[in-house]
Amino acid sequence: MTSTAINTPATVEKGSSLWKDAGIRLRRNRAATFSLIILTAIFLACLILPFIEGLLIDPNALNLPNKNSPPGGKHLFGTDHLGRDIFSRVLYGGRITIAVGLITTSVSVTIGVFWGAIAGYAKGFTDDFMMRIVDVLYALPFLVIVILLGQTLEPLTSKLTEGSLDLIVGENASVKEQNDTRTWVDPITSLVPLFIAIGALSWLTVSRIVRAQVRNVASQDFVEASRSLGLSHFTILFKHILPNSLGPIIVYTTLTIPSIMLFEATLSFLGLGVKAPNSSWGILISEGADRMSANPWLLFFPSLFFATTLFALNFLGDGLRDALDPKSSKD
Question: Which string of b and e fits 144-176 if b means at least 16 CB within 10 Å?
Fold first, then answer.
């Protein structure tokens, strides 16, 4: 008696990438997902609503007869001691605060990641030399250096403003179009020296974090396997080691953004950051703290936006850390 073999097609299970698995784990984290929604809503409100013509009151328009008005009616968040609409000032100020936090953090993290990754992977004399430079920079007075760099680079701001206007509206634009564009371009370009100054010196901590993480990952078996296959140092470092070191980097990045926002508020308080009549959340909080007895909403609403952004960044950072760490998976 003969038996006939029945060939059934084998099911091939599709592979899954690190980023796809991370996205699945992140979506399962309710706190991180909710924080991402909150951050997106705040960022879109601050970055889009001010550009919709006629929607917001001019944040710098004075209305002394209507000063210190409570929230309600035409002024959702009330008015300040000069009659300016707090709702408009919070959104316009949030645009500057977000720009400072994101751009400056991007500069500092980019420098720190490259510096720390090269030092941690190279080891030996190169590692010692690069980290001694970090130690020397740590010894310098950070605030003083930032102030000096900011003042040195300040003459570039007018050229950046004019160049940005030509690029956005063109040379043949009307005076009204140029003035309208200047109202949102000038506050950002005036802070470019601050971006460079803070970003060029705030990468020291992240470089140490990345160096330690790279040294830890570089000792694992898959890195030795990559070397045995003859892969270049560049490929091993930037395609194998760094992607497996992203967890601590992303968490530190989410914690750096609010700290840089606070640092910007300190510089603005000293007259070295945002220039009047423009404002940021830090400036509004500072003004509200001085007048909280007569005008508590001037302190409450900017603090609410700032604190919500800070908490959301922290929760999102924790969620991203867990999502990017394969060991955190409970499957």
Answer: eebbebbeeeeeebeebbeebbeeebeeeeeee
Phi–psi pair at 123, nearest 5 degrees: 60, -170
**CA 127 from centroid of its chain's CA atoms:** 28
Give the pLDDT confidence score for residue 251 in this predicted structure. 77
- Residue 285 contacts residue 265 (beta carbons within 8 Å): yes
Please, what is the Cα angle at 328 between 109 and 321, to 5 degrees? 20
Comparing 239 with 155, which gets the higher pLDDT?
Answer: 239
Residues 297/78, Cβ–Cβ less than 8 Å: yes
- Tell me how far apart the alpha carbons of residues 1 and 244 are, in angstroms, rounded to a whole number: 58
User: Are 281 and 94 in contact, with CB atoms under 8 Å apart?
Assistant: yes
Instruction: Residues 37-328: name the CATH superfamily.
Output: MetI-like (1.10.3720.10)
27-71 per-position pLDDT tens digit: 777 888 888 899 999 989 888 887 777 778 878 788 888 887 888
Instruction: Report the alpha-carbon distance of residue 39 to residue 55 in Å, rounded.
Output: 22
Rounded Cα distance between 261 and 99, Å, is 9
- Is residue 256 within 8 A of residue 109, CB to CB? The reply is yes
Average predicted confidence (pLDDT) for the chain: 79
> Exposed/middle/buried for 135, CB within 10 Å: 0-12, 13-18, 19+?
exposed
> Contacts for 264-269 with beta carbons within 8 Å, 24 or more apart?
264/97, 264/100, 264/101, 264/104, 264/191, 264/194, 264/198, 266/143, 267/146, 267/147, 267/150, 267/194
CA distance 205 to 256: 10
Domain ranges of the chain: 37-328
> Would you list the DSSP string of 55-70?
TS--TT---GGGTTPP
Q: Which has the closest alpha carbon to 286: 261, 312, 314? A: 261
